[in-house]
Design brief:
Layout (H helix, E strand, L loop, with lengths): L16 E5 L7 H8 L5 E8 L6 E9 L2 H11 L3 E2 L2 E2 L1 E4 L4 H5 L4 E5 L7 H8 L5 E8 L5 E9 L2 H11 L3 E2 L2 E2 L1 E4 L3 H8 L8 E5 L8 H8 L5 E8 L5 E9 L2 H11 L3 E2 L2 E2 L1 E4 L3 H25 L2 E5 L7 H8 L5 E8 L5 E9 L2 H11 L3 E2 L2 E2 L1 E4 L3 H13 L1
Antiparallel strand pairs: 1-3, 1-6, 2-3, 4-5, 7-9, 7-12, 8-9, 10-11, 13-15, 13-18, 14-15, 16-17, 19-21, 19-24, 20-21, 22-23
């Protein structure tokens, strides 16, 4: 039996609450009620949903009337299939400090692709009570080869590390160690950018470099471990390659001295080689940053929506017409895939006062041959809410 974890009982349901994850997006509260009421009286169920789209986020909370029923469900129903997917159950941790403390948290890597959540749970449950257990997966639900197990006590975690680290699981030698947060990894190991030895090189396809010429380009900066130009099936260069140095200093020197250099009318790109997931993480971070910047513009009232634009008005003309009211950070006329104007655009000022003045002065003004409509830009969700209010009014 999974003994009840040591957690506070001050919440609405205390220790009678379970977290249910890895759910099919179509799972509803009714589906879960039918499933879990078999274990005992259910007080309430909540499927967590996106606040805008109302689509399921793939997890829910099951609140039982009695803790013993929640424990029974956890012991007998964990990883049971519901709509073709094994659901992942664990005690609901209402106190975030327990999850974030790192106590009892173990990281496992080099897992065979066949090892799923249940297999990982079965392997590590012999060492103590498990609060949560998960194998990381991609968007196709395929294992990424690593996972996490959170034990109730640090003693259980330490035993798991001692006993399983270096063992063969499905013929693969696994690494098991204490989970470290990103901040801890940065402090202990340093940022990858400060210790890389592999570099990525591209934009030399037209130079027709031989393997020897390519390697000779990078030899002056230090001892090379490996050097390769990527080629197609016919043996023709694909215009990119990789160089691995013995030391970080050599790799850093190559990047600093060769990136941006001209080589036979080709401008070289030389940078630290990154794994696919690292590149994707950086792109996601940049996207989220841009998203927050756009959101802040809407919230601060500095972004204007301008429509009924004449066909001859481009970005430059739009900027000129509005620049008399303050400092413009961007002005854009929207166009289709053929470059034809869509008749509307956006102007972003550096302050709300400037934007308000522009709305007052420019709304209704005739530019070229049409009267402009100018208003504060709204996000799609806000426009929908206004439309709903207007309909009912």
């Amino acid at each position: 039996m999974n003994s009840l974890p040591n957690q506070p009982t001050s919440g609405n349901y205390g220790i009678a609450s379970l977290y249910c994850g890895d759910l099919d997006p179509d799972i509803t509260e009714a589906n879960l009620y039918d499933k879990f009421s078999q274990a005992g009286p259910v007080a309430s169920i909540r499927v967590c949903r996106d606040v805008v789209t109302k689509r399921s986020l793939g997890y829910a909370y099951i609140n039982f009337q009695h803790a013993i029923d929640a424990e029974r469900a956890l012991d007998t129903m964990n990883y049971e299939l519901i709509k073709g997917r094994p659901m992942r159950l664990m005690w609901s941790q209402r106190d975030p400090s327990l999850r974030k403390s790192g106590v009892g948290n173990v990281f496992i890597k080099n897992l065979d692709k066949s090892i799923d959540n249940k297999s990982l749970y079965d392997t590590f449950s012999v060492f103590g009570n498990i609060l949560s257990c998960k194998v990381a997966t991609d968007e196709r639900n395929t294992s990424k080869g690593y996972g996490f197990v959170h034990f109730e006590t640090q003693e259980s975690a330490d035993q798991a590390i001692i006993k399983v680290n270096g063992m063969l699981l499905n013929d693969k030698k696994v690494f098991v160690g204490r989970f470290m947060t990103r901040k801890e990894r940065m402090e202990t190991l340093g940022h990858p950018a400060t210790r890389f030895t592999n570099i990525y090189v591209k934009n030399f396809g037209e130079a027709n470099l031989t393997d020897e010429e390519f390697e000779g380009l990078f030899e002056p900066f230090g001892k090379i471990v490996s050097c390769v130009i990527m080629k197609d099936d016919t043996g023709k260069s694909r215009g990119f390659g990789f160089v691995s140095y013995e030391t970080h200093e050599a790799a850093k020197g190559a990047v600093e001295n060769l990136n941006g250099n001209d080589l036979q009318n080709c401008k070289l790109y030389v940078a630290r080689a990154q794994k696919k997931n690292e590149r994707q993480a950086e792109l996601r971070e940049k996207y989220e940053k841009l998203k927050m910047e756009r959101l802040n513009r809407y919230q601060q009232g500095v972004n204007l929506y301008v429509k009924n634009l004449d066909d001859v008005i481009d970005d430059t003309r739009l900027h000129e017409e509005f620049s008399v009211y303050g400092h413009i950070t961007s002005a854009k006329v929207m166009s289709d895939d053929k470059g034809n104007t869509k008749g509307f655009g956006f102007v972003c000022f550096s302050s709300p006062d400037e934007a308000t003045k522009a709305v007052t002065e420019m709304n209704g003004r005739i530019i070229v041959s049409k009267p402009l409509f100018v208003a504060l830009a709204q996000r799609k969700e806000e426009r929908r809410q206004h439309l709903v209010v207007d309909t009912f009014d």
